[in-house]
Amino acid sequence: MEITREYLQTVVNKCKPFSANGSVKQYIPGLDNSNQNDLGITVITLDGQTVSAGETDLVFTLQSVSKTISLMVALQDFGKEAVFQKVGMEPTDDFFNSIANLETYQQHKPYNPFINSGAIAVASMINGNNYLERFERILELVRKITNNPSVSLNKDVLEAEKRNGARNRSLAYYMESTGALDKDRVEDALELYFRINSINVTTHDLAKLGCFFANEGVSPHTGEKHIDGRHIRTIKALMMTSGMYNESGEFTVEAGIPAKSGICGSIMAAVPGKMGIGIIGPGINKKGNSLAGGKMLKLLSQDLQLNMFHKEIHKDR
Amino acid sequence: MEITREYLQTVVNKCKPFSANGSVKQYIPGLDNSNQNDLGITVITLDGQTVSAGETDLVFTLQSVSKTISLMVALQDFGKEAVFQKVGMEPTDDFFNSIANLETYQQHKPYNPFINSGAIAVASMINGNNYLERFERILELVRKITNNPSVSLNKDVLEAEKRNGARNRSLAYYMESTGALDKDRVEDALELYFRINSINVTTHDLAKLGCFFANEGVSPHTGEKHIDGRHIRTIKALMMTSGMYNESGEFTVEAGIPAKSGICGSIMAAVPGKMGIGIIGPGINKKGNSLAGGKMLKLLSQDLQLNMFHKEIHKDR
Amino acid sequence: MEITREYLQTVVNKCKPFSANGSVKQYIPGLDNSNQNDLGITVITLDGQTVSAGETDLVFTLQSVSKTISLMVALQDFGKEAVFQKVGMEPTDDFFNSIANLETYQQHKPYNPFINSGAIAVASMINGNNYLERFERILELVRKITNNPSVSLNKDVLEAEKRNGARNRSLAYYMESTGALDKDRVEDALELYFRINSINVTTHDLAKLGCFFANEGVSPHTGEKHIDGRHIRTIKALMMTSGMYNESGEFTVEAGIPAKSGICGSIMAAVPGKMGIGIIGPGINKKGNSLAGGKMLKLLSQDLQLNMFHKEIHKDR
Amino acid sequence: MEITREYLQTVVNKCKPFSANGSVKQYIPGLDNSNQNDLGITVITLDGQTVSAGETDLVFTLQSVSKTISLMVALQDFGKEAVFQKVGMEPTDDFFNSIANLETYQQHKPYNPFINSGAIAVASMINGNNYLERFERILELVRKITNNPSVSLNKDVLEAEKRNGARNRSLAYYMESTGALDKDRVEDALELYFRINSINVTTHDLAKLGCFFANEGVSPHTGEKHIDGRHIRTIKALMMTSGMYNESGEFTVEAGIPAKSGICGSIMAAVPGKMGIGIIGPGINKKGNSLAGGKMLKLLSQDLQLNMFHKEIHKDR
């Protein structure tokens, strides 16, 4: 399958108008209303092509895409069973920052690792003596996977995250009160959570991440195996059912590709065995997903037959 | 890939003990405590093998597996856009018969077509002059797909469904009160819903259904195309995110196969491009899924590499 | 204390403008938009005065004011303990027709007898061979208390109640499904509930009812004792905490008088030891209470020192 | 009306056995399992009697009884309208430390000032340059009302409150996130909230507080008027509908007296125009109310005809 720059540019052009109905998350430094109609995409295939179109020089922060990385590290540290004793595997119909269900259903663990409460619980588990050590481990892994040693912390965004972190604090303290979070890990988990949200990346970095998931945890540029393939499949399955917040069901129907979105308007998608996709489009809808970016993913899926529920893909080889 | 009867019998033997922790849905005639440890499976591959093991002569009713059929007919009658104006595409963390979310989130349509409220809403749409005509259309389709003209209504179960239908009535009237269900369709939709739940089938019939979904809507035994492939992909995607009720997330992680369960302890699974699987195991857990049956599906997925998130499956052909 | 017609007319004039922000419940025959600004009041004191002002010739139906009557009969039939095993005593923050809490908190009895679910549960208890007999008992009691033998059923309203009864049906069937309502009493309870809602009254009748509650269950015009005073105190206490739906807290603060409102815009209030008040003002707010009527009650309470939390009232005699 | 020590001792003896089914809040220093069956009561009438029985030398902390004091100060500082723009007046069916409704109903203010979220919101309003100044104002008022200059802060309890304050922190940060609490007041409000919960008192002090409410804000021992009577009536009304958490409905029916409970097993009750009552009985039920203490209040109400819904009390003087 060949993907040309011209084709990608057509996709960008077709989808750009959908940004108009969105809004840009204002509290995060680096993005403002002038970015609402930005749209960029990078595709990296497992067989070595890299193709980009649109505003691919935009630098933005990982935000919720980081939830896949922290889960990966926790799975590596403790294994599937231990991690999923702390956090569930089920999609939720609530918003990503919801607190009600933690109380209403006397559910003393968050529904899944891709909502805020779940990601904070995961952050509280990661090995390391303090949040600085834990953060270094995560940052190093992101640098290796993206093959980009210049990936780094955005301190302005970190400050903003902390200043605007009331909802996340509320989630963390609620979990302390029910025993879902260890008392002495609360502030540390929040600090780590804010930091991994604040790592600067580009669509190229996201596409590399997607590739890594598509290639079962083996770095496509070095061939190095960083993570056990079973953990990677677990994460892709969760991206399918919960990666796009409470819009995941629609994305599974319309695109059929495991993907994880971030509040900056980013999407990192992994087409198993085929390619990684990195998208930025800061105009987001009420559910927190990039409007034009989501449209691009659905269009690519149709045009390139990437929908995993398509029979042809699964034909016996 | 060859699947032998011996292998399937091993799977049945390994998984049978898991039934012990379950319970049998008592209100449905034909199943009682004596069935708790029954376990049967039929696999039909797209290339023509049919293999069975365990109690495959058990006759049971479609129950919630029928939700895939009624959705199929509604999609054929009205198209995707119209159907999903009446019912959502999102997985829910609530139980299959939940009513709270219809009120709490002022969500005037059910979350998805595979929870009871959603299936009743779908049943209310299907073309036909009355519930008898509508039911005949569905029954005929099931007979064609299973290539089994003797598939028929179980009147005892229908009576039991109606006698024990208070929760479903409550859901239907609630939806009338918010306008999600047309006033003059309420009783008709309930009658149809109870009927399609009460169609007698075997694991062989479920495996045929699974095959049909795996083969993109083309009958694998006659080559006849009954339904547009796009609708079949939509249904498989919904089976992945919502087919196993509020345990769908775990099944996506552990099995990675689109599947739909029924309260009798049945599972119908469709491995795209490969096979259909029909399972019965009446010992169900609190979320309504067959304990031993679910275990079998997960084991098959591992042993036969059926997990859709596995890279190998997607290698370029 | 003397209450003059001139004073009451002033109150009506002052409060009338508040109706403008309300709306008239349209599905009930007999009331339409032309009634939005109607406002009428009758006060009957225990020492024999009857004073009226405004549109007191308006005939309307009991609606939720009837919830006090059915509770009274159930208390008489079975005693406090038995009744409150079926229905709670607690105020709720939900709307009067809410269903969510019946599920969310696995609360298998309605919060209190003055929300719809609770009143249906109470209606299901009342002694009698069928809904006609039960209804006759209630109608007779209303006639006795109001000393008005012409009080009767409004058949047009009854038809409308049944035609628009989907939410109440949903509540009743939900309660059947959890065992809160006996299976064979559901339709009968609904029929009775719709009927007692559909009894025609005037502000004069409501004031008589209020008097009866104010006078501890002794008819103020005949001296006949119809109900045990303890039951009357129980009902007044519930009127205080739950009589004005989820606006009861504010009414307790602002008026401090036990009162029960109806969706027609009626209010029946009972000032213990002093007087009964009947109000009609069809312009209601979102919580279901008469806007101008509520204002009148608060004003009367201030002007006439009727607030039960006032120290002076409780001075040793 | 005369209340003898003998009579009160009988009440204590009758009610003591009810403590057996309760439990003692363990995280608060000063109370442990040895206190489960303690029971003490002090009654102070407006005409000057002081009568006590049982363990009236027990020193315990104000806990939620303090919610009446902070509301009083806020009402004095800003008036009714301003205060109730920040916090509601409605009783809630949820537990006192619930967070779900703040999200579910997009209710950006707490239901009432007597649940934890509401009391924290009230604490955030009180005038003063910092929490120390604010606390001093409240402590001074308590000393004046109780005429007990030795009332003071229990530092051990304060430390325990802060150490175990996760749920309250969660509530406060949630309110910050929705704008219900000012960003720069969160930690200060929590600190103040924990402090006013940690003021040492006895049943005698609580009875004095009750007297003050019963006497419309005039100190019964000095005749000094501390607070506007209208505010006192507002607080008594809220005590009636919400003072005993989500058991307030039952208390209104069974006792009919405005009362406020604390998690230590204390109750402060105010019978308008008559008396104040202070109770301690550390064995509490699941709703947070003293089991034996609640029983005492109900029994006193019956024996002494204190139920406010009783007709006799309201007879024209």
UniProtKB/TrEMBL annotation, chains A, B, C, D:
Q: Which reaction does it catalyse?
A: L-glutamine + H2O = L-glutamate + NH4(+)
Q: Does the keyword Hydrolase apply?
A: yes
Q: Which InterPro entries does the record associate with it?
A: Beta-lactam/transpept-like (IPR012338), Glutaminase (IPR015868)
> Which keywords has UniProt assigned to this entry?
Acetylation, Hydrolase
Which is one GO molecular function term here? glutaminase activity
Claim: Hydrolase is one of the keywords in the record: yes
Q: Which domain of life is it from?
A: Bacteria
Might you give the EC number(s) for this enzyme?
Answer: 3.5.1.2
Binding of substrate, residues: S64, N116, E161, N168, Y193, Y245
GO terms, biological process: glutamate biosynthetic process; L-glutamine catabolic process
Concerning its family, UniProt says: Belongs to the glutaminase family.
Q: How does it assemble?
A: Homotetramer.
Question: What is the name of the protein in this document?
Answer: Glutaminase
Q: Specify the species.
A: Exobacillus caeni
Per the UniProt record, the lineage of the source organism begins with: Bacteria, Bacillati, Bacillota, Bacilli, Bacillales
